[in-house]
Amino acid sequence: MNEKLIVSNSPHIQTSYGTSKLMGNVLIALIPAVIAATWIFGIRALILIGVSVCSAMLFEHLWCIIMKKPTTIFDLSAAITGVLLALTLPVGVPLYIPIVGSFFAIIVAKCLFGGLGNNFINPALAGRAFLLASYSLPMTTWAKPFYYKTGAVEAVTGATPLKLLKAGETLDIGYLDMFLGNMGGCIGEVCALALILGFLYLWARKIIQPHITVSYVATVALLGWFFGYNGIMTGDPLTSILTGGVLLGGIFMLTDYTTSPTTRAGNVIAGILAGCLTIFIRVKGGYPEGVCYSILFVNILAPQIDKLVIPKKYGA
Amino acid sequence: MARTFKGGFHPEERKHLTEKKEIVTLTPPAILSIPMSQHIGAPCTPLVKIGDEVKIGQKIGEPSGFVSVPVHSSVSGKVIAVEPRPHTGLGTVLSVVIENDFQDTVCETVKPRDIDSLSPKELIDAVKEAGIVGMGGATFPTFIKLSPPEGKKADAVILNGAECEPFLTADHRVMLEHPEDVIDGLKIMMKILSVSRGYIAIEDNKKDAYALLKEKCKNEPQIEVILVKTKYPQGSEKQLIDSVLKREVKSGALPIDAGVVVQNVASAAEISTALRTGMPLVKRVVTVSGSGVENPGNFLVRIGTPLSYLAEKTGVKEGIKKVLAGGPMMGAAQYTLDAPVIKGTSGLLFFTDKEYKHYEPSDCLRCGRCVKHCPMRLMPFKIMQHAELNDLDGAVKYGLKDCMECGTCSYICPSRRHLIQTIRIAKASLPKK
Lengths: 316, 433
Hints:
heterodimer; A: mainly alpha; two-stranded antiparallel ribbon; two-stranded antiparallel sheet; 14 helices; about 60% helix; B: alpha/beta; Rossmann fold; four-stranded antiparallel beta sheet; 13 helices; 17 strands
């Protein structure tokens, strides 16, 4: 044995779960949602996702070139941002929308703050918030599900259930429609089944912990029932969580590592806070939906929650 | 259901390489180097000089402080040097180098004793004189654990048969091949501490050892054999106490403050043989394993045997990247094979590219995996954040002082950050009490 030996501090083995493997698992968990989006809103949904992913990865790669850093696109976080951003778009938006959104998400919200791990808000949601403020008409023009099957070339517009509820109307769809995604909305938010499949996968593979998602969804259900559109205790808890972006946001955005608290208790608190804000915006705010802004708000609080909620140490 | 604690993780075990291999007694080498420091605490003062004849079991190092135990010669022969020599954990250490005469002449002081008639005080002295330390790797002098300070009383003794480090199977084989010694050692300790409850905790990946000891203990109403979950760091004292007794050792306190004494199974077996035969701790079982070894196995080795001798006997392949004394989680990387086996050397691992991977650290994702898995329930990423800024007060707030350096955070970090390494540096710069 003549080789030179490597000497380093213990431990001498490490998990095979590096960043890119974790992110790859999140991408796998997003597959059902992508399939559902394509099934419900047609091939155009898939095109939106493709454009969004490609532009997000391209922007990150270009940024690394400009900053003379080794490229970081292989950690796959940019790809996740691309998919998530596309899933929050209506199907009828022009194709430059996901490109502009990706630019804001990757360059402004993420890279300018130091890249993965240093962004203070979820990049995909920051991109969506930017788009909603800048292109409010296409961003709130909703297509009817399965419009493409009627032979229509342009998306046939319809309203989202939340918009109808806010306007004081009653819904003409049942729970099964809501669960499977037979309703208007963003391409990735309507099919609860696909999102829950993704959630179960992430939970089973221990990629995420369920605390923040469960506390968020439970809070939305409870408060959605309590603060109904027609007065106290008139709401419907199931409708509250199956419509709008509660599941998409709760499963894939709130659980974002960088922008959520790191402790179990902190995550429960963050979920409850986000749930309260979501219902507040829905019932009292100017928008019919409050998932995006409530999550962005909680993102900003995450480091503060980590300072306040310190787990009880062993033997303390 | 196997008992367990919160946190930790289940590593790839890789114990299949050696767990079925019986302990092989290795013939001692021609030259041995016996360090005067094989335990936590003050080093020994050599009692021999160049040219002296020594015999097996002869005391060659006298303790120079309270936290210290004597060192004995593991062969008979002639002292050829007393000088600093490589050590597996401490760089170079004053060592007695002995040329083996292969006569295996036993020292006159080594004679069987009727230990059943000895008082607890005499038993403690015998444990000390036999040079017994924690053989799981920590090498804390055993007699100190057996003499609780004034006013403190143990009510339980736990034998640690968890062996939670990947690769290592030395304790496993000792339990399988010398179960009577293990149980006898436990009973001696229970007698010393006048404790009526003894536990043997074994991880559930060693069901055969569990079944065997349970069978052997069926007429021992005071001893309970307990299955604990296979999880790192199950073999850590504080975690094992939590698993077995659901007790927590207060921050900054010792297990005895929770009324518990924890001792490694190999140390227990050694207490039995050393006290009954009179032969002090001069040999131990070492697991030699890793993908860089032709014939991995468990070997009974004389203390002071150079690692290179073990490498030669087991057939080390080309392409070795790392050599570890101990397990992969807490063991020490070696720069030379000239260092010898000491009392705490539970394993010798030869890593090739198969086990050795180099990763570049990247920025913290704030994923919280270190927080979730920390067995002390600390916030390692926050400790590191503050330690990097040299803000020790901040680091202490998130648990710097409570860290036991098990390395779980560094193992689990997807960003490959040097968490435990940074924490160790910060701990070392804490003002001494």
